[in-house]
Each structure stands twice: as C-alpha cells, then as structure tokens.
Design goal:
The structure holds two protein chains of two kinds. Chain A is mainly alpha-helical. Chain A has two domains: about 425 residues, no CATH class; about 40 residues, no CATH class. Chain A is built from 16 helices and six strands. A two-stranded antiparallel sheet of chain A has the order 1-2. A two-stranded antiparallel sheet of chain A has the order 3-4. A two-stranded antiparallel sheet of chain A has the order 5-6. In chain B, about 75% of the residues lie in helices and about 5% in strands. Classes of the chains: A mainly alpha, B mainly alpha. At the A-B interface, helix 2, helix 3, helix 4 and helix 14 of A face helix 3, helix 4, helix 5, strand 2 and helix 14 of B.
Chain lengths: ~475, ~325
C-alpha cells in the first residue's frame, strides 16, 4: 500500500474510532434525558416519592454519560478540519451552517441548563428545575436533528451547486438542504434507536435488581416503564427501519446491493440471502443460505420484480460489501431479539408475572447492551455503505482527506485510542458501579460527597439490596 | 453591510467568550495542586462545576463557526496546527471527565485530580501555541496547508503557550477570590500577586516580539502614523496592570477578576490591530475565506435570534449559582 492510501485508511480509522465511541453516549443520553423528563413530570404530577428517587438514581448516571458525550463530541467538531480538511473546505458552506445551528440551538441549551439540572434543585424550586430538565431533553433532540440533517445531506445531497472555488454551495432553499430525501427517515430511525437503547439499559438495570429483590419498588417501576417502551417502540422501529431501507433503495441502491449481498443482477426476482460469505474479489456470496424471491418481495413488494446487482456498477464504486452485509445482519438480528423481549414482557404482564419471572429478567439483563451494538452496527451499515464517497456520488473519500502524512495520523490515532480507553473505560466502570447499586428509598442527589452516599437515613440502610434475604416485600422502600 | 465583517466579529466574540469563561475554569485546574486535598480542592472544583460545560461550548462555537463562516481558513488552519489541536482535545477529555469521576471513585481521586490539572495545563498550552503559530504565519499552497508537522513549534509559539498558562491561572485565581471564602480565598489572593506580575511580563515580551514577526505587524504597530494609536495600548495595559496589582491585595472581591478581564480585552484588541483583516496573516483574508452570501445570511438569522437567548439563559445559570460557594458542594 502506498503512502497516500495508508494515510487515507488511517484517517478513516481515526474518524470511525472517535465517532463510534462518541455516538454510544448520545445514543444513551438522548433517551435518558427524555426518561428523566418523564420521571420528574410524573413526580410533580403524582407526588410519589418513587419517581423522585428514580429521577435522582438515573440523574447520577446521566451526569457521567453526558460528560463523556461532551468531551468526545468536541473531538468530532475538530476532526472534520484536522483530518478531512478538503471535505471541510468543499462542503463547509453547506454543512458548516447546519452544525453551527446545532451548537447554537442544542449544545448551549443542554450545557446551559445542565448545571441547574444537576445541582440546582434547592436553588430554583421544582417547577423551574423541571423546566431545566425539559430544556436539556429538548437540547439532545435538537442536536440529533441538526447532525442528522448533515449526515443525511452527505448520503442524499440536495439543493447544492458548485462555485468557482470548487465548493458545494446552496443553490436556493435551505429547506431543500435540511429536508433532503433521506433526512426524515434517518431522523426517526435514529431517535427511536436512542429511546430503544435507553429502555433496554433501564430495563436491564431494573431486571438485575428484581433478580436480587423482586420487591424493590424502584426496580419494579423502572422495569415496567422500560418494558412498556420496548414493547411499543421495537415494532415501530422495525417498521421505521423498513421505510428507511426503501428510501435507501430509491436514492442509494448500491448500498442496498451491499446490504443484501447482491453481487449479481436478478431480472426475475432476487433471493433474500440470510447468511453467507461475501467475497468482494470474486464478486459472489459463498455458502449462501437464501430464500428465493423474498428480497424482491420485501424491497419491491412483488415476487418477480427485477433487482439490479453490483455487477451493474463499476467496481471502483463498490463499498466494502462484507462489512455492510454483516453489520446489517447484526442490527436486524438484535432488532428481532428486542421485539421478542417486548412481546415476552407483554405476555408476562398479562399473566401478572412481570416482576416475578427470573427468565424474563435474565433475558432483559442480557439485552442491556444490545441497543448500543445495534446502533453502532446500523451506523456502520449506512456509513460504510456510502463508501467510496463522503458526499454520495459527488466527492470521493480519497479526495476529501487532509494533507497529513501517515506518521502524523498514526500518532494521533494511537493517542486517541489510549486516552479513550483510559477515560471511557473508567467511566463505564463507574456507570456499572452506579447501576449495580439498587435504587433506594432515599436516593442522594448527584455529587454528594461519598461519605454521604452510604445511606444517611435508617430507611435507606434498611433496604440495602445487598443484604441476604432482602427479598421480602416488607423491606421494600416506601413510595 | 458586509456580512463577512459581521461574521468575523461573531467568531471573535465566540473566541473571546471562550477565553474569558473557560479561561478561569482551566486556570483553577492549573492551580489545583496548590490547594490542599479535601475541602479546599472540593471548593475550588465546586466554584466551576455547574458552569464549565456551557463555558466549553464557546470553543465548539469558535471551531464550528469558523468552519461555517470561513471554511477555507478552517481547512488550512486545522491541519497546520494538527499536533497542538489534538493535544488540546485530549487534554480537555481528561479535564471534562474529572468533574464527575473524582466524586465517583474516592480511592483514585488523586489520579483524576492529576488528570484534571495536567489535562487543563496541556489544553491551555496548546491553545497558546495555536495562537502563536497562527500569528507567526502558516505556509499555504492553493487551498491547502503546505507546511510540515512541526512548523508550529517555535520559540515564539512556546512563549505564547506559557503566557496563556500564566494568564488563565491569573483568571482562575481571581475567580476564586470572587467566588470563595476562607482558606481558598486567601490562597487565591496570595497566588494572584505573582501571577499578575507574570501576566504583565508575558504581555510585554509577546508585544515586543510580535512586530518583528511580519512586516505587516511592524507597519501596524511601529510605522507612522499608526504608532500614535498603537502607543495607547501599552499605556492602557500599564494602567490596568497597576490597578489590578493593587486590588489583589485588598478591596472588593469581584474587582481583580474584572480587571483581569480588561487585560484580556486589551490583548484581544492588540491581536486585532496585528491581524486585521487576515485570518491567516499575509495569506488568507476574511474575504478570501468567507462562505457564500446565502450561508452567511442563513446562519446570521439563527445567530441573531439564538445568541441573545443563549446569553440570557447562561446569565440565568450563573445567577442561580451566584454568591460564594459553600464548602461541602451543592446539595
């Protein structure tokens, strides 16, 4: 591999590494911010202490997740310039303003109200504090809106022309740029993914504590709320994913070919390849297990509908098929498992065994990290599927990269890897420690000095879930 | 009205807001090892915990705004300053996570405090180096950076890096004078004295060095008739400097911070005299790098509405946490 190609691959690896690490946090904090807003709203409405406790319990977790999202996010806003300067110069007039709107309408909103949300309840009162929580939740959604407009524009560019300097500039309406053809689908799919990811984590934490003490009222509440969310949202997500797939077929058919493993064109109905070994060099899928005509039925809603394959596209425009093929299957497989969990929880709920079914609880614990894996697999599918372009069909990835040699990119990539593993691995340990701690009747506020978290009231000490035999309902916290 | 100038003003405003607001956060972290473990450090940390995230957002606006309003400058400057910028980002990672992690892991609190301090030190030094490297000039060919990995590293950029460490530390000390009581407050007054002298020296050396970096700077500062206006700058700095030094020892708790802000403001004006109207001195002016009119207008609508709103709720957040910090933290 020559020097230029090495530097390009390293720059791509660096972006993939930093953005994958980053997105794990917003995928969680978008959903968690909304969950916190619901909890605090319910607390204000019902006055029930269990909601206040759950709010404080998840707020401590939110503070860590949000902090890691912030520090890994700032890196992203500079990655465009340090490693993809040609892309930044050429696409800056279009994506720059969208990102500026993200900063102005979302980042400041989140950051400005976060301090009040974390530390201000005794200073501003309940109503204003609820308002701060709502603003933080709104900020996370605004952020998703703008950055998905940017990403969608790179997938399905609209409303552009090229100026004398070779830059992509607006050709007319900004609405055409923001509401480019794939944006609405991607937005819905991504935000639901964040909600689903969060509900799986909340459900897993609730299930974990129910396994130890099925009478813990806080654990019951969070598990029940999470399972409602999963049961309602998982089917919607599968439907949303399907419509996004159809949108992709219309605007980025080559990506669909790679996802399906369709190297060959099928003029009389294409099979759905369940599994197989995509071989890019040979241009075929080895050991394919496939269902005839099903792909045509799914994508075109007709048994014999023709579907073009990668053989209709120059090889230089092929994405890396195996990665897209597999990441897509991981995402879909996990999505089906999430649907299964949702349905199982409905069944248990109907039978009245939602809080007393260890099998369901074990399944929920197992599914805790599934959302993160599915989200990353989904992003890998759509981003790798866009290759070899940064702006689909308009700007090649190879022509987007900064004039930085491979030693420089290697050095910075290593530095990112080391620092991220140190910082975010520690953060993950702290998150797991917080989650391992059962929700108590008197959850402390965030940032309590550790000497106070051990439980300063007899009630809190009484319901410590670690105590053997603590499963009697009598020991459960008062709501 | 030339929107390019308006956008240059907005970017400068964002950078100035960042320097002022995150400057004292970073400065407190730089001074962190000088405070005793326990209540003193907790108090210093709590003086910034509710606001640091909002403060840091101005850096994102500075970077993101540069990309949006002056994409060509963004595309040249960031690769040119590759190493210091990556170092800054990594430093800010350790600084940012420390706020939560040090409370979550008492056994390793010393480790996160170390990361908090060193991360802030590295980020500050890198920001100072960035400024110096930009001032001394960047090699450009066509629409891209044309220099090597280490072009940014010169005695001048190291000088500006160290100067910014001193400056932020002074801001941090003055913020603590304002926001804390007791031992921390007294310590902060003690630290601010030598720091103000250091800041004064740093300003003098950087100012004396700058005109000789580029012909253009020499013209702006020392050639007739510009020298008449430019000569007022050192005078103003001297007046503010003396006032600051006298107010650190005694007087209203808010004054040292406000006077230090004046010093930073004057430095910014000096920087403007040197650089205007270039973004990359002698190479790329604001008009060369400007985004098309349509992008400028679109963003200006948003900035015109949202920046005032941001200032209002940021002001509110500061007001909520007004007054002196209590020792144990916020509960």
């Amino acid at each position: 591999m020559n020097e230029t190609a090495t530097a390009l691959i390293l720059a791509r690896a660096q972006f993939a590494f930093t953005v994958s690490f980053h997105f794990v946090f917003p995928a969680f904090s978008i959903g968690l911010a909304s969950f916190l807003a619901v909890l605090e709203g319910l607390w204000l409405k019902t006055g029930r202490g269990v909601y206040a406790n759950l709010y404080r319990y998840w707020l401590k977790i939110f503070a860590i997740v949000f902090g890691m999202g912030v520090v890994s996010g700032i890196v992203m806003s500079y990655q465009f310039g340090t490693n993809w300067s040609v892309f930044s110069d050429r696409a800056g007039p279009i994506i720059g303003p969208l990102m500026a709107y993200e900063v102005l309408s979302a980042f400041f909103l989140e950051a400005g109200f976060l301090g009040v949300m974390l530390f201000g309840i005794n200073k501003v009162g309940r109503e204003l504090h609820f308002f701060a929580t709502l603003m933080v939740a709104l900020g996370t959604l605004m952020s998703a809106t703008w950055i998905l407009a940017v990403n969608s524009w790179m997938q399905t560019p609209a409303g552009w022309m090229v100026n004398a300097g070779g830059q992509f500039v607006p050709s007319g309406s900004w609405l055409e740029i923001i509401f480019n053809p794939s944006f609405p689908y991607r937005f819905v799919h991504t935000v639901i993914a964040a909600y689903l990811t969060t509900s799986l984590v909340v459900g897993a934490v609730g299930a974990w504590h129910l396994l130890k003490d099925r009478g813990n009222l806080g654990a019951q509440r969070m598990f029940s709320m999470a399972m409602w969310m999963a049961a309602i949202v998982a089917p919607i997500q599968i439907f949303a994913g399907d419509t996004q797939g159809l949108n992709t077929l219309e605007h980025q058919p080559v990506k669909i070919m790679a996802m399906e493993g369709h190297f060959e064109s099928h003029p009389h109905g294409a099979p759905l390849i369940l599994f197989g070994r995509p071989n890019q060099a040979a241009g075929r899928v080895g050991y394919a297990v496939q269902i005839p005509h099903l792909s045509s039925l799914v994508l075109k809603h007709a048994w014999n509908a023709p579907l073009a394959g990668l053989d209709s596209v120059p090889r230089s425009d092929w994405p890396p098929v195996a990665i897209v093929f597999w990441s897509f299957r991981i995402m879909v497989g996990l999505g089906c498992a999430m649907l299964g969990l949702g349905l199982l929880s409905l069944w248990a709920r109907a039978r009245g065994t939602l809080f007393s079914s260890p099998l369901l609880h074990r399944f929920a614990v197992l599914m805790g990290p599934a959302g993160f894996v599915a989200v990353i697999a989904g992003w890998v599918t759509t981003e790798v599927g866009r290759q070899p372009f940064t702006i689909y069909h308009l700007l090649r990835t190879a022509n987007s990269v900064s004039p930085i040699g491979s030693p420089g990119v290697t050095g910075s990539l290593l530095a990112f890897v080391v620092v991220y593993f140190c910082a975010f691995a520690s953060g993950t340990v702290y998150l797991l420690k917080l989650m391992a701690h059962p929700p108590e009747a008197h959850e402390t506020a965030p940032r309590s000095l550790p000497t106070r978290t051990a439980g300063i009231t007899p009630a809190a000490a009484m319901v410590g879930g670690d105590a053997p035999g603590g499963a009697q309902p009598a020991a459960s916290p008062r709501a | 009205m030339d929107l390019t100038v308006v956008w240059a003003a907005i970017i400068v405003f964002a950078v100035a807001m960042y320097v002022v607001m995150d400057g004292f956060d970073l400065g407190i972290a730089i001074l962190f090892p000088l405070f005793r473990v326990g209540e003193e450090r907790d108090m210093a940390m709590n003086a910034i915990a509710p606001v640091w995230d909002g403060n840091e957002t101005w850096l994102v606006l500075g970077g993101g705004g540069l990309m949006a309003a002056f994409p060509l400058a963004y595309a040249i400057i960031l690769p040119a300053l590759y190493a210091p910028l990556i170092a800054m980002l990594l430093g800010l990672v350790f600084r940012g996570v420390a706020f939560e992690f040090r409370w979550r892991d008492p056994q390793h609190r010393a480790r996160w405090d170390f990361g908090f301090c060193v991360g802030s030190l590295v980020a500050t030094f890198a920001q100072g180096v960035t400024l110096g490297a930009l001032l001394q000039g960047i090699k450009v060919s066509g629409r891209a950076y044309a220099g090597g990995y280490w072009d940014w590293l010169t005695p001048f950029s190291v000088l500006t890096g160290i100067s910014l460490i001193v400056g932020y530390a002074l801001l941090g000390a003055c913020w603590l004078i304002w926001k804390t009581t007791g031992v921390v407050h007294d310590d902060a007054r003690r630290f601010a004295k030598p720091l103000s002298l250091g800041m004064f020296a740093a300003l003098a050396v950087v100012s004396a060095y700058t005109p000789f970096l580029e012909q253009k700077y020499y013209q702006a500062w020392l050639a007739w008739p510009g020298v008449l206006a430019a000569a007022q700058m050192p005078l103003a700095v001297a007046v503010v400097g003396v006032l600051l030094y006298r107010r650190i020892g005694k007087g209203r708790d808010s004054l040292p911070f406000l006077l230090t802000l004046c010093l930073f403001g004057l430095s910014l004006v000096g920087l403007g005299i040197s650089m205007w109207p270039d973004l990359i001195p002698g190479r790329v002016s604001i008009w060369d790098a400007a985004a098309p009119h349509s992008s400028q207008v679109f963003m200006l609508v948003g900035a015109g509405v949202l920046v005032p709103v941001i200032l209002v709720y940021t002001g509110w957040a500061y007001w909520v946490f007004r007054g002196k910090v209590d020792g144990g933290g916020y509960h």
